[in-house]
Design a protein that fits this description.
Elements (H helix, E strand, L loop, with lengths): L1 H19 L1 E8 L10 E9 L4 E10 L11 E15 L11 E12 L1 E12 L2 E11 L2 E13 L4 E20 L2 E2 L17 E19 L1
Antiparallel strand pairs: 1-2, 1-11, 2-3, 3-4, 4-5, 4-6, 5-8, 6-7, 7-9, 7-10, 8-9, 9-11
Length: about 220
């Protein structure tokens, strides 16, 4: 029995050592595909610099599994690019056979959007204007503090996280056929999130999971 226990402990330790030498990881965030408004196919890589530090870079290309429709946006193009610095916690206090690695992270995201609308309104200063057509530029910048846990197996890593931060939104219209007009609040086609030009800040909450393929050398 003692021999079996020693062998099992030795195997766990060997596997732990194997996990620790991960240098690069390719990962996929499946939940981002299911956003009905701005779904993306998000792929990324994570580079490990030490037991405590890693950097992750992700890029999301437009792809929707579900399309809510009815937004009135025409020619909607966008992408999502993220950069993240991870700091792993309690490395020296971890139980040797534990597969769970907790971390804190700082993440930045750039989310450019461009699209057009027809026969709608824009609010500038204190006046509403109606237009025949408008090209809208709507980039978003996000800075977040995240807490997460990586569960590391030999061939896959599951990375779960939650975050809280600040979202900075810019809205700019390039209109054709603009004229001052009464704002009809009952008009179904109004895009309330882009009707007002300017720069706006709001709370950003992130919640997600990534599945990674570790690469060792």
């Amino acid at each position: 029995m003692l021999l079996i226990s020693n062998v099992a402990f030795s195997q766990s330790y060997s596997e732990e050592e194997f996990l620790e030498i991960e240098k690069l990881r390719v990962h996929f965030a499946p939940l981002n595909l299911f956003d009905p408004v701005t779904g993306v196919l998000q792929l990324g890589v994570q580079k490990t610099f030490s037991q405590r530090l890693a950097v992750s870079l992700d890029h999301g290309m437009k792809m929707k599994v579900f399309d809510r429709g009815g937004t009135g946006k025409q020619g909607h193009t966008y992408s999502k690019t993220k950069a993240e610095l991870k700091y792993f916690l309690d490395i020296k206090k971890r139980v040797i056979w534990s597969r769970v690695f907790s971390y804190l992270a700082i993440e930045g995201m750039y989310f450019p959007q461009k699209y057009s609308r027809e026969d709608n309104w824009v609010y500038r200063g204190t006046t509403y204007y109606r237009y025949d057509y408008s090209k809208i530029n709507r980039p978003v910048w996000v800075a977040s503090l995240k807490y997460g846990q990586e569960t590391r197996y030999r061939k896959v890593v599951i990375d779960k996280f939650i975050g809280l931060g600040v979202r900075r939104l810019s809205v700019k219209h390039q209109t054709i056929g603009e004229r001052e007009d009464h704002f009809d609040h009952d008009e179904w086609s109004i895009g309330f999130r882009d009707i007002e030009e300017g720069i706006f800040e709001m709370i950003h909450v992130s919640l997600g999971v990534k599945f990674g393929l570790p690469i060792y050398w």
